[in-house]
């Protein structure tokens, strides 16, 4: 099953003026499908470093390997041959041709300074996520445009109900979305984690206790959308805090975990500084927690954090193909005023989003957003509570209640 990838336009733009373009994101998120579909129509030859023989050739003679590549080449899973980055730099300096190399990677090279710095000024980087809900529906949403314009009109929308839970437990990995049987989907996610920890982790780092990573990821899934607590994560494994921190960073490099930093301004001195931890995909989180839609419907305590992560990841995915970059944070002060997700575009556009699993919204639910608006002042453009209700309505002063489904169905 093929899904549209709305990042395609950004990819074509990058290839039109940049010698090297790297698409990175988690394994099985659709990177290879995306680059091969473009490569077939733009004259690229494809080489995958999932092929052990190709890895051996590139490792033994990286200069000769790169020198013998055709004029336009796709190099898939390039993180497996890290020394090739410096050779690509030399080749690009010798012949600076836009779109010369199209790379993909299943590890975040931005967290490996030597790799990212070797192609500084020569490489454009695009992040590919698992599928957004609007990509699954094959219809791009205008939600982010409405958010930064503060232009949500009064409207009715059908409640999602049980279908929302199904979306949360399915997640966005194309292979998982294609599996209609929940048990087969959960099995795929468990196999996915095992493959990553046994294969990709070995490529990235030499760690003594590979067996710690799956249960550590399980524990992180139970803490999604919560403040990072390294000591709590470390306690069952009898490992030091620095060691657990190193393991968490490794899981971040594989795009399985993501830290959300707190929003702050110089004038705001009473803000919490600890990051939040989010799983990279709620389908993966639910599989690790053995939660299906029925179990999630009964466990409202588990639903809240998972729904927040679901919305955060949907926003991240939609933001990845926007022309203007969007930065993500959360807000919490020492008096427990909180906003789940803060979005900042440019220097003077800031919006806040709260996530509610309920079907109703009251004025008191805007307490955190009002405090955030008063803290931001001039740069605040809108505050939204996303909830599983039926009415999109203004609560005054750039504050809105918006049905969740409009996140990916905003016309």
Key structural traits:
about 400 residues, alpha/beta, Rossmann fold, 2 domains, seven-stranded mixed beta sheet, five-stranded parallel beta sheet, 19 helices, about 45% helix, about 20% strand, globular
Give an account of the 3D structure:
The chain has 411 residues and is of the alpha/beta class. The chain has two domains: 8-127, P-loop containing nucleotide triphosphate hydrolases (Rossmann fold, 3-Layer(aba) Sandwich), CATH 3.40.50.300; 133-409, no CATH class. It is built from 19 helices and 15 strands. Strands 6-14-15-13-12-11-10 form a seven-stranded mixed β-sheet, with helices on both faces. Helix 12 (213-222) packs across helix 15. The radius of gyration is 22 Å and the shape is globular.
Write the layout of secondary structure elements.
Elements: H1 8-17, E1 20-24, H2 31-42, E2 45-48, H3 52-60, H4 62-67, E3 73-76, H5 84-94, E4 101-105, H6 113-118, E5 123-127, H7 133-136, H8 143-149, E6 155-156, H9 162-170, H10 174-178, H11 182-204, H12 213-222, E7 226-227, H13 230-234, H14 241-253, E8 257-260, E9 276-279, H15 282-288, H16 293-298, H17 300-319, E10 326-332, E11 338-345, E12 349-355, H18 367-376, E13 380-387, E14 391-396, E15 399-403, H19 406-409
Parallel strand pairs: 1-4, 1-5, 2-3, 3-4, 12-13, 13-15
Antiparallel strand pairs: 6-14, 7-9, 8-9, 10-11, 11-12, 14-15
Helix pairs in contact: 9-15, 11-15, 12-15
